[in-house]
Amino acid sequence: MNHPPMTLTAGRIGIISDTHGLVRPEALAALRNSELIIHAGDIGSPDVLSALEKIAPVLAIRGNNDRDSWAKGLPDILFVQVNAIGVQVIHNLNELKIKPASTEFQVVISGHSHKPLVAAKDGILFINPGSAGPRRFKLPISVARLKIQREKRQVKIVEIKI
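Above: the chain's sequence. Below: its structure in token form.
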């Protein structure tokens, strides 16, 4: 990494991914009271980001399906520091080139698989909020909530019933 990560203060973070242009009111409701929203790619439309920005500031990365001109300014990978906790956001976890354990990042957020995941490995918290967009196979529709207070990180997958 050639430059330091952006530094933010936010205790309650909403995490969403793979909306594919669909803005579900239930997903927006699940993200209410967030101080920051992170979209982990496959946004599908700038309307999704506009809807999320009505709740909280949004950081978003481009997913493999975000190819239209509106998405060209979005980064492929994002490095951010939230409350002194390093967070890396990448759409496809399989494309992770940096070993998080060898960096200053304690959280890795991804999307792509549409499968919700919360796992800890080598002191790193891996979060995939699943998909808040069109249902894929029999996978749930979901988002995630991350709470960062000092060194503590708490995450919850919120399944959306539709």
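The mean pLDDT is 89.
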